[in-house]
Amino acid sequence: MSLCLIGANSASGAIYWGSAQNGVGAANLDGGNPIWDYFYWPYIDESAGPACGVAINSTHLYWAGGNGIGRRALEGESVYPATIVPRLNRPCGLALDGSHLYWGNFYEGSLGRANLDGSQATSSFVTGLEKPCDVAVDARRVYWIEEGGVGRANIDGSVSEREFVSVPPWIRACGVAVDGRYLYWGQTGTIQRLDLEGGGPPETLVSGAGAIEDIVLDGSYVYWASWGEDNVASIGRASLDGSEANARWIVSPHYRLLGVAIDGRPSPPPLTLPSRPVLFARKPEYNLRSGAVRIGAYVPGQGDLRITSRGLSWKVFRDTVPRPAWAGAYLWRVRFRAGAGKVGKRIRRQLRLRGWSRVTLRLEYTQARVYPVTVSRRFVLRRYPGARAGWVKHPGPPR
């Protein structure tokens, strides 16, 4: 839901889309190297998905989340500010110009506007609308599509024309883009185009485009996000004259795509994201004969988990089955005991002389494209002479 012109002869670039399932995806502008989880939300936040609108400029990726708008720097930022415009009611549609971002408030019937950093936000930039689902902007005007047609207003929000282009209310319409000469919108499986300079009736530019959610342009092509037969979501592409149309140019494994944006970079810049937390299970188990402890750890993915504590030997037992009750985390088992080296000898000596030793277990979780996350917890190792082999949860005092 962004208009981003990258030149009349754009031979390279990147394309981004919002998913109802998994954040933001990205690919090269030739459709190659799709990354379905290019950006996702490690933490629950107002701008968490589904991403009903994406937009991009030279520095940031923007998205319209469930109850807010967020942005992420594309280069040189270690963590991202999750939400820059909070407390919205399911914003949908997103567009940028050089100084502002614009969005549709679907349930409130209005357009919102804010500075690019989220400051001076207002949800009543244009009011009195009927379920606006997309927004576009050029140098002079802001356009939107709602039930009943495509509307427009001056760039400052004045002189609103709600039915600049009329669409019958029984026809599903969503997705709007503008390039200064033409206005484009989605309407019942087609992309329509209106000549803003020459006048005349709208023309059908592309047919068989599916149920369109968003439209974006570059200097050579029109792209759209849609879902079509069998609820297959996809990115479509056609030349600006409507030729070479391919409604399934990039086919998504997700059931619905909700936004599309174009960037002039050669490919999507690599993003490193914060990890979701690693959590310890509540009750450890103790082997009183060997002095070992084992504990469960909930990890956010299938990355690597290691112990960084000195003086401990350890082993991790992985599980590949996610736990829905724990936000899809995986429950892995960690077993550790006194190890080698100077610190390990001190721990073993304490166990031998008094039957217990305090240690701090430090875990480090790493995963591709995710910043490492660490967690620690204090334990008391116990080893009793003559104890039976086996694991207990509540060790009593030594006999």
CATH architecture of the largest domain: 6 Propeller
Structural class comes to mainly beta
Report low-confidence residues grouped into runs of 5 or more: 1-12
Helix content: under 10%
The backbone outline, from C-alpha atoms, is elongated
Characterize the main sheet: 7 strands, antiparallel
CATH classification class of the largest domain: Mainly Beta
Supply the CATH superfamily name of the largest domain.
Answer: TolB, C-terminal domain
Summed up, the domain count is 2
Reconstruct the topology from this structure.
Layout lengths: L13 E6 L3 E6 L6 E5 L14 E3 L3 E5 L4 E5 L17 E6 L3 E6 L4 E6 L6 E5 L7 E4 L3 E6 L2 E6 L6 E6 L6 E6 L3 E6 L2 E6 L7 E4 L4 E7 L3 E7 L5 E7 L6 E6 L5 E7 L15 E2 L4 E3 L4 E8 L4 E4 L4 E6 L4 E2 L5 E10 L2 H14 L1 E12 L2 E13 L8 E2 L7
Antiparallel strand pairs: 1-2, 1-23, 2-3, 4-5, 5-6, 7-8, 8-9, 9-10, 11-12, 12-13, 13-14, 15-16, 16-17, 17-18, 19-20, 20-21, 21-22, 24-26, 25-26, 25-33, 26-30, 27-31, 28-30, 29-30, 31-32
Folded structure, characterized:
The structure is a single chain. With 399 residues, the protein is mainly β.
Name the features.
7-stranded antiparallel β-sheet, 399 residues, disordered N terminus, Neuraminidase, 33 strands, 4-stranded antiparallel β-sheet, 2 domains, mainly beta, elongated, single chain, 48% strand, Immunoglobulin-like
